[in-house]
From TrEMBL:
Gene3D superfamilies: P-loop containing nucleotide triphosphate hydrolases. This is Adenylate kinase. It is an enzyme of class 2 (transferase). It comes from Nonomuraea insulae. HAMAP family: Adenylate_kinase_Adk. The keyword Metal-binding applies. Pfam families: ADK, ADK_lid.
Amino acid sequence: MRKYVIMGVQGSGKGTQGGLLAAGLDLVHISVGDIFRWHVKNHTKLGAQVRRLVAAGELVGDDLVADVVRDRLQLHDWNYGFVIDGFPRNRRQAEFFLESYDLDGVIHLDLPDEEVWRRVLARRLCSRCGMDYNLIAHRPEVEGRCDVCDGDLVSREDDTPDALARRLGDYHSKIDPVLELFRGKEYVMTIDARADKATVQRAIRTRFNLPPYEG
């Protein structure tokens, strides 16, 4: 059983790399962002709470994130292990994680802030089916329209310059101490996230001596 954590600033490709790693190793990919987006899309009570926070320009609280992750892991559907992105969010959560799970490694996707700005502000989401696009790496065939369902492509509600500036500040203040804790346990492998997704995935697998990526 393998258990990995993927950490990185917004726009570093945590979800993409987590999905590729999970698919190749038969792991369950647990994405905090995807969980919240599902709740928003399906108009659950939690989704309404998240939507209010986003509309107010606020960040989802660490305690709420911890509750969501704990509930998800308790499903125990990860027979061969899991790869989780978007958690832990602070040192206290990281200490809980180390006490509760025998991690195989922490993948730190390193991306300079200037590249974060470029990538995040180019992201688009289909308003109908939820398909993700990026106007840098994954442009739709018809500008502003989804290739899958022809829905309108829109920016995510929290992909604004003000919101991104707050998230970057929050990330560096909280996540740097988490990485320091994990480095003390010799779990962390730092990967340059500026390359294309296939190159990044191959680097991850090489550093952790995992089966090669053939994509």
